[in-house]
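User: I'm curious whether this sequence folds into something compact or stays loose and floppy. Could you predict its structure so I can see for myself?
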Amino acid sequence: MRYEGNVFRPPSEADSLLIQATVGCSHNRCSFCAMYRDKRFRVRPVEEVIEDVIAARRYYGPDLRRAFICDGDALVLPMHYLRRLLAALAETFPDLQRVGIYANARDLLKKSGEELAELVRRRLSIFYLGLESGSDRVLEQINKGTTAAEMVAAVGKGMAAGMKSSVIYLLGLGGRQDWREHALESARAVSEMAPNYLSALTVTVVPGTPLAEAQARGEFELPSPEEFALELKLFLENVNVPATVFRSNHASNYVPLAGRLPKDRDRLVGELEAAVRSHRFKPEYLRGL
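Assistant: Here's the prediction. I'll summarize afterward.
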């Protein structure tokens, strides 16, 4: 296998074969993100990537069940490329059950419903999308390059085609000033999406990013652990979904939580309230990106 630079994947893809079909992120301008700033976006030749797939069989054997296509928004790849790559995966790993991919709203909206349904038939059955915030004001501030309405429509389109959705909400992006709007508008957007999976991560200010520069100028103030917990509490109290698996146990989070919404809402809110009362938060040295 050949990888260029740091390669990232969702926590749930820890046991998946990672296939780097694209290098970097085609947008790569979100103010908080440092994941791909050392890379210039490009698409690797499909023949080269298929060579990597075949080479991976020597390590994984024929029984591989999951694969994940990297880098940042690999669903930007055209259909003819994805068809060849997915066919090679299916031929090389006959027991393959699921292929995952990062996606943004533009990628999902550009492809037709029929094309997305075809990808599902070819086992590309889950996408991960960073909502970050449901507030268009916050999205503009972080230079997300899309609106909340576009992301809601994109998630709906993917799910209508048979894909499972995993959506990320980024705690703290509204700072201390706009935290209520950030929480409430994000709850509204997630309610409209009704994703299969929902993760709440906590923003970390990474040196060298535009967000770090805004913080240095006094234009962004990072919430305290208590304020992060209160923001998540407000968010959970206002999310209205029929059935969503919820996780807030990423390394970045001060209070690890796991449950199902709406079934476990009261328990999750109670755990946040208890953490605030007792000031029981993960220490900084145990947190990470």
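Summary: The two ends are 25 Å apart (CA to CA). The chain has a mean pLDDT of 96.
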